[in-house]
Amino acid sequence: MSSLHKGFTLIELLIVIAIVGILVSVVFVALDPATRFAEARDAIRQNDVQELLSAIKLYQVDHEGVHLSSIQNIQGNGVHMIVDGAMATGCNAYNDYCTTNVSANSTCVNLAQLVTAGYLEAVPISPAGEVVWDDGSTSGEKGTGFTLEVSNDGLVTVRTCEEEETSTEIQASR
């Protein structure tokens, strides 16, 4: 009686497992998921900047060239943080992490009226939009992670507060 065992030897299995492990690690390094996630977050930020700017300009066109009152109040007064009306404590906490030079960090620009008027479904919030205070705590409040500047001649510029994979600031102007 001959006993023929069909299957793999232990050495063959170990070699296959080692090869699969090496291939998985090479693919993982080649795909670099951390970079891909950072690029995806930057793409979201770019889309949100365009969405905010389009809503602001559409409101202005529909109202015969007149901006929201919150935007009129800041025209020619520097860069301001954008909020959706939920911030009760002010915007000065943002300036610590914002890569944009916020020149008017004590006042916010409330764009909640764009939501109530139907120009936005919600004021977008950047992936890193949570306020972190100087003591390291979070207030539970959300800022947007975006800034707004309106020049004296009416040019509106929306910028992100942070970018991860781009070497230039994410912004749009009209």
TrEMBL record:
Chain segments annotated as transmembrane: 7-31
Organism listed in the record: Candidatus Uhrbacteria bacterium CG_4_9_14_3_um_filter_50_9
Keywords: Membrane, Transmembrane, Transmembrane helix
InterPro entries: N_methyl_site, Pilin-like
Pfam families given in the database record: N_methyl
Transmembrane helix in keyword set: yes
Domain of life the protein comes from: Bacteria
Record's protein name: Type II secretion system protein GspG C-terminal domain-containing protein
